[in-house]
Amino acid sequence: MKFGISNNVKSRVVRECTPELFHQAMRSELVAEVCAEIADGLERLRRGELTKEEYDTLKAGLKKRLPIFTPHATFRNGRRLNADAIPSGLSMYDVDHINDPRGYWEQKRQELEARGVMRYVVLAHITPSTEGLRLFFIIPAGMDLAEAQRWMSQQMGDENYDVSVKDYARSSFVVPEGYVLYLDEERLFNEELKIENGELPASTNPPVGTHHGASDDNVHAADTPQADAPRCVPTFKGMPYSQIIQQWFKLAGGEPVQGERNDKLHRLASHLRYIADNDEALLLQVMPRYGLSEEEMKGLIHSACSAKWYSMPKMMQQALENEERRMKNEESLRNEELRMKNEEWPAEDENSSFGGEADILHSSLPKRLPALIKLLVSRTPDVYKPAVAHAVFPSLGAHLHRVRFKYIDNVEHEATLMNVLMAGTGAGKDCISEPINRIMADIRRRDEDNLRREREWKNEVTSKGANKDKRQRPEGLIIQEIDADMTNPAFVMRMAEADGHFLYTKLNEIDQFDALRGSGRGGQQFQIMCLAFDPGNRYGQTRVGVQSVTEKVTIRFNWNAATTIQKGRRYFSKVLTDGPISRINFCTIPEREIGADMPVYGTYDAAFDEELRPYIENLVKAQGLIDCPQAYKLAQKLKEECADFARLSQSRVYENLSFRANVIAWLKACVLFVANGCQWDKTFEDFIRWSLQYDLACKMEFFGSAIEEAQAADGLHNTRGPRNLLELLPDEFTYQQAVLVRQQEGKNAEGTKNMLWQWIHRGYALQLTVDNYKKLKFRKDGNDIDKNR
Description:
The protein is of the alpha+beta class. The chain contains 26 helices and 24 strands. A hairpin with an 8-residue loop joins strand 1 and strand 2 (about 15). The longest helix has about 30 residues, at about 435-465.
């Protein structure tokens, strides 16, 4: 049976559930923690510490954190919509509000075995509320979901079954394995297994019109409520009566409870008759019963329809308006899903110059952003959004543990990401702090426990005399976030104890790195930067002293730093050609006009944290070598685009910086892929291309001319960043004009011949005579010539 699994009820992304994913979800710490909190809340309710309303609110919030199964279906395109459902052949059945689910199941299991029904059941478990029972069962051949529900209600002897469990996108919360009462894994995942009509156990007609309200542990998908509903569902102006009734109950304070059943149902019938033309037969068909007999319902409805006729009650008018609004919202949502799925994205402009030009530093983000980036910049003023969009990646990558990705050169990399924000004094460099704080919140909570253990050990050791036995340093002291001014021995020790996790720090000033340079030789902090980026590095120190740190470690170190442009240039001035600059991702904040309004931030609240949570959980649970073919292809494409611009700009500095900049951009794509549940999104490509261009533009803006000056023996350098030299030439030009353009851009004349050969070979230009050339691309008349014609 193929059914789905998803991160939580808010997520529309669903993938096929395998036995491995099934057990992994049930064994996760998150599921155990959430269900334990729900059980604790129930105990507090029973002790009178919580009201029923407070408990229900607590429970509803906690369950939103749980992963879900979609037992009824998998979905084309991986989107949880009834329109895309591929039926699994399974149905689920709920029994709610029972005090002893285990005892209830044992009794029912014996009855089901006696009737031959257990061969249909593949899973039974206690629901997250601990007050309900859920079954997954194979749908007998020839039945739809609604018919299967009615049939199972007979077998269970349950007249108050949940008739609303009838859409394919309906989901079921994952519970811990300890909640499972029965599991037939072989049949649960057996695609070929079907049970024919001829093998059905004997049964009587199912109860008519019974209803128990929405299951406490079920969740409706945001799709059409009548999807897969029984044929000829009664409607009023296209709205199913069942949905109108649910809207009415919301306005009336909820479904009837013990002691108010007759009064509330009578009032409902009195209101419904205004949209049912006083038709008692129709009302008998659509009204929920809550255990009332056929005769009781007939009497109640007749009494309601015999009352004096007035205008339609306001509550019924409001219920109709609410349902109409809900259906419009769902229609709009479906249309948006279809639009996003079918939308033709604009083709790339082949003539647009790639990266390196300073204009991108003043441009905004791409219009379509990955959902995670859109969330992380959502509370950020527009002027700061590009900086934040770059700066969040080191802390995101720090959540990955021993996760590897294979680059286009066949070398495996981990998500080693380092970021420096360089901007003017008073530009607002602290804009990156709060998004990073929210990303790092879970790591900081774990770190605090281990820091406490370390403090206790230190206090114990300090309190003992020199000759007394002292307890060894505790094991498992994984502390990921380190102090910005940590010394080199402390860094090595933290790295050794991290057990393959990334260390992370945020530096308010780049020169705080100087604490790591060590006393033996200068520049050790720059060596750490380079080793942190390079796969398979080894680093450490050897000391003679018994108490000294002697370790060799693999550096996994992600970090953020901020500095002014002047200080940043000065800090890296002695290592311009040594590698740190090419390995670091740079970003900036454009200078605002004098007297411009102060940017105003949004509020980082619990809703923000809740929306961020599933992305962080996806990063934390990732394991091993992860294949992302889309990121691999994008890296190949961006490498060629960088090479094209290098040929056109003839900038050796740009070309050299682009090699590792492309690796950084690719790693960002891989992080987004994992955070998104290993699902690729079309928005990733535009964002990653922009990110690469922005990074290279910053490097060329801040360091390009200095690197050229350091590399060029003749001292010629370009102070404006790389430019497309072909665009600077007329549509027909001479060899001497090409030489002149190179010299104007700070390049020597000797490279002109090789430049023109590359342009001709790549189809950018055509040689007419020995000294005359014609542009095929980037023409000033705007009419590029296809070299293949």
